[in-house]
Amino acid sequence: MNLPEAKKKYLENPKSFRADLKEKLGIDIKQINFYEDNEPFDNMISKLEEFLDKDVDIFIYHEEDELTSHYKVKYRDFLSYSSPTLMHSIVQKPSGFSMNVHNLLTLQLNNSSFIQITPLKNNKLEISRIEAYETRIGEGTRLLEILFDLLQFSNGYIPPLKAECTGAVGVGETYRSTPLDVQKKFFQKNGFVVKKATHQFVELERPKSRGEKMD
Q1: Long-range CB contacts (within 8 A, 24+) of 17-21
Q2: Strand locations in 25-65, DSSP E?
Q3: Where are the domains of the chain?
Q4: CA-CA distance, 119 to 122, in Å (whole number)?
Q5: Which of 68, 84, 89, 171 sits a CA distance of 20 to 30 A from 98?
Q6: What is the pLDDT, as a whole number, of residue 101?
Q7: What angle do CA 101, 122, 187 make, to 5 degrees?
Q8: b vs e for 107-132, b when ≥16 Cβ sit within 10 Å of the residue's Cβ?
Q9: Coil, strand or helix: which one is 138?
Q10: Residues 145, 148, 149, 153: what is their CA dihedral angle, to the nearest 10 degrees?
């Protein structure tokens, strides 16, 4: 099912749509939002193959001999992506569970760490999920830096980015707990500012960068 089909099915019978979700997920979805692809998201998709051929410097520090090795590689040597797919992302807020229905792009490193990005209204993007399997070496920050570089490359600027923290990611088998304060500090360290906050939920946003769109 694609985005227009999912939206049509919901509008035909919202009550039945919610009932089906509750039966499948075991939770009551209070709000459902449908987001169309926007210009920054489309540009990002269209420029991905060209971006993967971009040269990038890699520095690796070797603790045993206190030396740093330098390598010049291309992004495609360690980065891949999955074609955009329809995603139903669930967020638990103080008012209850909400679901965002949108297309989702996944960027993945060779070790399976990944970052997922979705479109929002007003040419904003949302970081839907980050899974970093080498947290001690700043791999989460590395994934964000790759995303920033991709957006700058494909749009000529970095559009506003949103992130929502609830102290966990996923539902059911994909559920993974992470302290809310740790999540918040991670995004703040990378240029995000808090917009809303409770003891269970934090919404952050990274403002649009300055810059002119490339041809």
Answers
A1: 21/99
A2: 29-34, 55-62
A3: 3-60+68-161
A4: 9
A5: 84
A6: 93
A7: 75
A8: bbbeeebbbbbbbbeeebbbbbbbbb
A9: coil
A10: 170
Asked whether the beta carbons of 162 and 118 are under 8 A apart, the reply is no
214 DSSP assignment: -
Residue 19: both structure tokens together: 């009932």
Mean pLDDT calculated for residue range 60-77: 83
In this prediction the pTM is: 0.83
Which H or E element spans position 190?
A: none
Return the amino acid letter for 77. Answer: D
Q: Between the CA of residue 189 and those of 17, 135, 161, 183, 206, what are the distances in Å?
A: 39, 14, 14, 10, 11
Axis-axis angle for helices 3-12, 14-25 (nearest 10): 110
Residues 161-176: tens digit of each pLDDT: 999 888 766 555 555 6
Tell me the two tokens of residue 167. Answer: 């102290």
Q: Which two tokens stand for residue 70?
A: 């330098």
d(CA 187, CA 205): 9
Q: Compute CA 48 distance to the chain's CA centroid, rounded to the nearest angstrom.
A: 16
| CA 59/CA 48 separation, integer angstroms | 23
* Nearest one of 31, 32, 41 to 124, comparing CA atoms: 41
- Helix, strand, coil shares, percent, the chain, to 5: 35, 40, 30
